[in-house]
């Protein structure tokens, strides 16, 4: 994969992560704390966490082809590393002060991670369909 494609994927993942977090927090705040508004510090914190989450995605890119099993292992390691890194950072800066808050953050990270993985899966599925169509066209050209 080219560097420009990797950079494009990281930027896309950052935006998806950031948007997902903002949407989830906005909905939950409207339900549980409608008087609470976003301040600039919380938006910057969310942006930082989103960027960190997107940058850890670099470990999923390999210059050579990897097997499906190896990629699944990378995804699991990436998820666990991301959880550990974000929870540690959150506790260091004081965003998480209790075990229940840490567990809630773990759940939120898992939901956002699932959304990003699902969107990546859909993109990969479309690319695979395009490749298959091209291969069918080449195969027909060879037969003719």
From TrEMBL:
Superkingdom of source: Bacteria
Transmembrane segments: 12-31, 43-63, 75-95, 101-119
Pfam families for this protein: DUF3021
InterPro entries according to UniProt: DUF3021
Keyword Membrane among UniProt keywords: yes
Keywords for the protein's UniProt record, in alphabetical order: Membrane, Transmembrane, Transmembrane helix
Protein's name according to its UniProt entry: DUF3021 family protein
Species: Paenibacillus rhizoplanae
């Amino acid at each position: 994969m080219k560097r420009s494609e990797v950079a494009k994927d990281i930027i896309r993942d950052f935006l998806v992560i950031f948007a997902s977090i903002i949407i989830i927090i906005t909905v939950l705040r409207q339900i549980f704390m409608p008087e609470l508004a976003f301040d600039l510090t919380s938006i910057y914190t969310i942006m930082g966490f989103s960027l960190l989450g997107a940058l850890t995605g670099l470990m999923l890119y390999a210059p050579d082809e990897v097997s499906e099993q190896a990629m699944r292992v990378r995804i699991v390691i990436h998820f666990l590393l991301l959880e550990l890194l974000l929870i540690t950072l959150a506790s260091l800066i004081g965003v998480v002060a209790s075990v229940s808050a840490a567990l809630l953050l773990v759940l939120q990270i898992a939901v956002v991670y699932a959304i990003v993985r699902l969107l990546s899966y859909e993109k990969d599925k479309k690319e695979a369909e395009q490749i298959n169509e091209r291969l069918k066209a080449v195969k027909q050209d060879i037969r003719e």
